Structures
1.
Amino acid sequence: MTWTPALPKFIAAMLIAGMLSFAHAPSHAASSASEQTLIAAFLYNFLKFTEWPADTISDEIMLCTSKTSAFEELDAISGKVAQSKPIRIKRISLNEPSDDCQLLFLPREDGSERIRQWLTLTKNKPILVVSNINEFLDIGGMIGLMNDGRNLNFEVDLARVRRANLKLSAQLLQIARDVRSR
């Protein structure tokens, strides 16, 4: 192997990739917690790389999730900054208004029926709706998170994102596993 100036960056990238793969190796006790930590990181980046209509964000960016979710890892991104605004986590139920949410995360533990109800309530609103339930895009979701046991990936239904007057950055779309309706 010939040493070039780009080689240290390549080696660092490979080490990070290796650590991430190792961290995601299925260990039943820790896999749920590590998956939730990764999901929180993905959601934070979705907030950073999504553009909402100007009149939908006030002093803070609101990341909402259902009250039934025991997703404590989300609290780690509360107060962080995305798009020059602090992020606030809000836990809501189906009968509460979701209009102040920029992103709504629906965990698979909510079940497909409840998730379908959320999708009906938020349809065409400027709310980025994300879930880790299987086949989320097939039931009307915008971004589906998929865990294959080794890696966490995501897929996007761009037509639904656009109908909600949202824009995802090109960088975000490039790293998506699949983008429907380009």
2.
Amino acid sequence: MKKIPNQYGYQDKPIWVTETSTFSGRMGGLFQSEEEQAADLVKRFAILKAAGVKRVFWCGIEEIDYEGGTDEGFFDQSGLVYDGRGVLDRGKGVKKKSYFAYKEIVKRLSHSSFIRMQNDSLTYLLMFSTPSGKVSVIWQDKWNGNKKIRVIGKGKVEVYSIYGEKLSSFLDAMDLQLGIEPVYLVGDVEKFEYEPGVLFPPT
């Protein structure tokens, strides 16, 4: 992403992503849940932050009638708040799960600095430094498989959903089964691994 700007002498210019999105709902034969939209939002923002992008903008907060009354187009359903139109719409002004995921990632990562990434095309662990301490985002892309992982850290690490709900905490290590949604790891995380061993239960 930085190669072309660098090539033309713009290496010091900040990179902005002025529009990104995905939808929740039905588009033809394709259905995507609110949870899948929220998960994808977090992945997009975390990866772009790690890549050094300075600003990222979602396509819109509230859904719009983009395709003239179909209510099933991609952009008709990409907003974070329902507009009251469509079979799967839950009511005008109702906030989707992606709204709360967006609110949480802004709180977690807005003032963060990227440390490093560990990934093997199945599991992704992105580590950030924030004014209040270290925060990591971890997920698995299910189309590549699913494996239980062990998270290795130093000291106490707290596990939060992408909506800010505390799920568990552990000391030094914990076995973790990831679902559709990423989770936040708040604390000093070193790595993940797949080797089997004794289960470290949450505290």
3.
Amino acid sequence: MEEKNINKEEKNKLEENDTLSDDSKNSSSQSTGDLNKKNSEIDSLKKQCEEYLDGWKRTKADFINYKKDESKRLDSILKFSNETIIKDLLSVLDSFDLAIQSFGKDSKLEKGVYLIRSQMEDVLKKYGLERIIVSVGQQFDPALHEAIAVIESNEPSGTVVDEVERGYMLSGKLIRAARVRVSK
């Protein structure tokens, strides 16, 4: 009987081991399935995080570019904001030139007017005004000169014969072309 009891006990133990073995197999396959599911979920979340991070990086770069563009635009506005008033003052400089031409030689008044004109031109230079230098015999440049007359001359065709009105640039931008007479 004892032998039968031992056999029954062994048989029960074997059955329990088989049951545990089946359960562990089931739980092992379950845990593998859960693990795969969780890994795919983690991968999906990582991919989503990368997409968000890339979007934020692009937005940050766009914002930095926007700030640079706005800074350049503001610099341009500041540089050329006084363009209108400087253009208006150019006619005053022209009037000074006419006054100086009308004076006789060695006139004290001429020297005074010339000093005032020079002083005014220096102030305008401080704000970016540059005179376009034109010399007789120079080749006509339509980007800097405005031909107001074409005349007969000993000079080669297309050269500047005379400067009628001075031209000016403001910080490298043409605000008034030099008015010249050109040879035929």
